[in-house]
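pinned: reference chain
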Amino acid sequence: MIEVLVADDQAAVRAGLVLILRGAPDVRVVGEAADGARAVELARELRPDVVLMDVRMPRLDGISATREIAGIADVLVLTTFDMDEYVFGALRAGAAGFLLKDVDADRLVEAVRTVAAGEGVIAPRVTRRLIGAFASRPAAPAETPGLDGLTPREREVFACLGEGLSNQQIAARLDMAETTTKTHVSRILGKLGLASRVQAAILAQETAATGLSRHDPHKEAPGPR
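pinned: its structure tokens
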């Protein structure tokens, strides 16, 4: 059962989100918050799997709340606004996903499941802008702090994260079990001090990691499985 905390300052919107989530047999809403500060309090108290977070809220905005909650629970930001400052702010704060409130009910529930499973979710409408933003930036030096602590296999997984691949896709590309992939992702996040795989993907893009280590079974022996 996926436990979810819903944070939104508009009571009607919050009620609608709760209604949608309660319609899913594998989702349980464990709490509601009308502002960011309360969301942080409830996240620490209830330890939900996923926090559905609005951006514009009183007392503490959703991005600041996400920064405090990341590491306690996976945060899926859901907002009316697709402004770049919100998108990048939320993802850099540690959000595992970013969706717009015009998302349909089925997509919302599926996004909650995806985030709870350790994957990332980005609204299709903002994905192209994210790609464009990264493409327009010069590549950062390969010696980014922390990267030298990654094993060769972890660098390969890190590069795949930068391409936006899921755990299943990474496992298939690198010829290893999906559970092993999840272990590598967790170790990468720990070594780099990141709160989510989306942050890892951003860092991988910024360091041009996808050009640093591609798996080629003809050039090297497989790493540990």
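why pinned: Strands lie at 2-7, 27-33, 50-53, 74-79, 97-100, 121-122. Residues 166 and 213 are 17 Å apart (CA to CA).
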